[in-house]
Design a protein that fits this description.
Blueprint: E1 5-11, H1 18-25, E2 31-34, H2 37-43, E3 52-55, E4 57-59, H3 73-76, E5 77-79, E6 87-93, H4 120-123, E7 126-129, H5 136-147, E8 154-156
Parallel strand pairs: 4-5, 7-8
Antiparallel strand pairs: 1-6, 2-7, 3-6
Length: 161
């Protein structure tokens, strides 16, 4: 299932997380795309692909047991040490495969995942630049969103480290 499933991870917290900025961008090398669950769902409405969405359930694998009976449970459970991620996952199976036969990734435009049709004007509410990013990043991001005709606010994180 790992070879035929693509996962897109989102954080559901209302506020920025210093832990996530540190782990995923070293505070200054990343951006955050702010959205909502309803916008995520609506933004993929034009795709012909099937997407599933689920909150991640954090468990202690030493003491807790994952329920049986659902093929997606391994995809939506994670060790409790990662609880701070407050994760929501979009799950997409790339195609039907036969047991013992792998998906043919050579037919895909990229090999690391699957490109899906998404409306970025619906998906993105706001773009937040890392708290220690250099000032020139703002101009770069504004140029990019202009190039793709996105009308979205861009700002620096207000998180103080």
């Amino acid at each position: 299932m790992k070879e035929t499933t693509c996962i897109c991870c989102w954080n559901k917290a209302e506020e920025e997380s210093a832990a996530l900025w540190k782990i995923y961008s070293d505070f200054g090398k990343g951006i955050m795309i702010k959205s909502s669950v309803s916008n995520i769902i609506e933004s993929f409405a034009a795709t012909n692909e099937t997407l599933r969405m689920s909150e991640v359930k954090y468990i202690n694998y030493q003491n807790d047991r994952m329920s049986d009976g659902n093929i997606y449970f391994p995809l939506i459970h994670k060790q409790s040490a990662y609880k701070y991620e407050e994760e929501i996952r979009l799950i997409h199976e790339v195609g039907p495969t036969q047991i013992g036969k792998n998906f043919d990734w050579s037919k895909e435009e990229i090999k690391e995942g699957k490109l899906l049709k998404v409306d970025l004007n619906i998906l993105i509410d706001e773009i937040i630049i890392g708290p220690y990013s250099p000032k020139w990043i703002l101009n770069l991001i504004e140029d990019l969103i202009g190039k793709y005709s996105l009308k979205k606010p861009v700002r620096f994180s207000t998180l103080t480290i």
